[in-house]
Amino acid sequence: MTNIALTLSYDGTDFCGWQRQDKMPQLRTVQGKLEEALEKMLRTHVDVQGSGRTDSGVHAKAQVCNFISPVDSVPVQNYVKALNGLLPKDIRVSRAEIMDRGFSSRFNATSRIYHYFMQTINPPLAHQSRYVWYLSHRPDVDLLNSYVKDFHGETDCKTFAAAGDQSLSTCRYIDNARFWYEDDVLVFEIEANAFLWKMVRSITGTLIGLEKSKSPSDSFMKIVKSCERSNAGVTAPPDGLFLWDVKFNGIRRHL
């Protein structure tokens, strides 16, 4: 019995999120497709655990997951090539490694980093449109960063919790939030120990709305501290959102 960790990327456009839907098995999910490929490879079912449950339409550059393989005869270096030959092209495995038996991609992760991409001014080209939110104006990056300069540390994120979120607590530890430009693409990066359902999209939409109306620099933190969902702005579409990285070497905080 070997604990295998995989790093994978995926285009989330045609998936109903990461998590397998046992009550609706016809839905296409990343976890479901990965488990199907592993069953073909190992000739037995294994349960895969992910470091984060991305929503429908959300992408990943470096999702980390792990599973217990009952087949010790398969060299770990064979997993990447074998799985990429069995998986659909919108999921790619980039790395496989043997971990300690107690390793959990979910519970050992100390933070998750998301990037949200926004194409500004000029409409995205056809091959880019699945991966950005199009904004017809060029937001003021300095104003956006002024909104999030105090958005860090232990924070009640109830304002950005979508209806139906089942988290036991709405408190999260925010490590970092910042904006920058890559040519005409505006990038929002946020790192936290964990996220509520649709939290990043709600934060992004709220910030863009505040910038568009040129609201004062303290406007965003007032919305955060209100803990009222009705004060949040629009929820940004899933297209521009990527699970960018997962860290395992930081300080372990609550979920």
Give the structural class.
alpha+beta
The succession of helices and strands, N to C, reads EHEEHEEEHEEEHHE
User: What are the low-pLDDT stretches, counting only 5+ consecutive residues below 50?
Assistant: none
DSSP E strands, number = 10
Q: Count helical runs.
A: 5
Specify Rg, calculated over alpha carbons. Answer: 19 Å
- Rounded average pLDDT: 94
End-to-end C-alpha gap = 28 Å
- Helicity, in percent? 10-25%
Biggest pleated sheet: 10 strands, mixed
3D shape: globular
Give the amount of beta strand, in percent: 25-35%
Tell me about this structure:
Helices cover 20% and strands 29% of the residues. Strands 1, 2, 3, 4, 5, 6, 7, 8, 9 and 10 form a 10-stranded mixed β-sheet that branches. A hairpin with a 2-residue loop joins strand 8 and strand 9. The relative contact order is 0.18.
